[in-house]
């Protein structure tokens, strides 16, 4: 998993140990090192453009966006959906 260098990952060692997943940090201002992340941000912005007041977004709206994104085929996943990949890896 690759992250930005933000404070949200201050506890990355715990996450890595708990999930047995290697965690990497992208170089500052190197968006090309986080391709899937940047692509996903673009998809989210289709529903929630910049300057959206998140105080006006309710749980139902978020669930709808989540459902649409998790059921959208992705090239990086061999044109499977994230939901299909997760389902295959948990059975």
- N- to C-terminal separation? 22 Å
What pattern of helices and strands is seen along the backbone?
Answer: EHEHHH
Work out the number of β strands.
2
| Stretches with pLDDT under 50, minimum 5 residues | none
Roughly what is the average pLDDT, rounded to an integer? 87
Describe this structure in words.
This protein is mainly α. It folds into two domains: 47 residues, no CATH class; 42 residues, no CATH class. The chain has four helices and two strands, in the order E-H-E-H-H-H. It has a two-stranded parallel sheet with strand order 1-2. The protein is globular, with a radius of gyration of 15 Å. The model has no long low-confidence stretch (mean pLDDT 87). One of its GO terms (cellular component) is cytosol. GO terms for molecular function: nucleic acid binding; transposase activity. InterPro entries: Integrase_cat-core (IPR001584), RNaseH-like_sf (IPR012337), RNaseH_sf (IPR036397), Transposase-Integrase (IPR051917), Transposase_IS30-like (IPR053392). This is Integrase catalytic subunit.
């Amino acid at each position: 998993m690759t992250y930005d260098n933000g404070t949200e990952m201050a506890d990355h060692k715990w996450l890595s140990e708990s999930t047995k997943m290697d965690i990497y940090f992208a170089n500052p201002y190197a968006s090309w090192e986080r391709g899937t992340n940047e692509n996903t941000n673009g998809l989210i912005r289709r529903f929630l453009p910049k300057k959206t007041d998140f105080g006006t977004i309710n749980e139902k709206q978020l669930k709808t966006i989540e459902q649409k994104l998790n059921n959208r085929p992705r090239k990086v996943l061999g044109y499977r959906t994230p939901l299909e990949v997760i389902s295959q890896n948990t059975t």
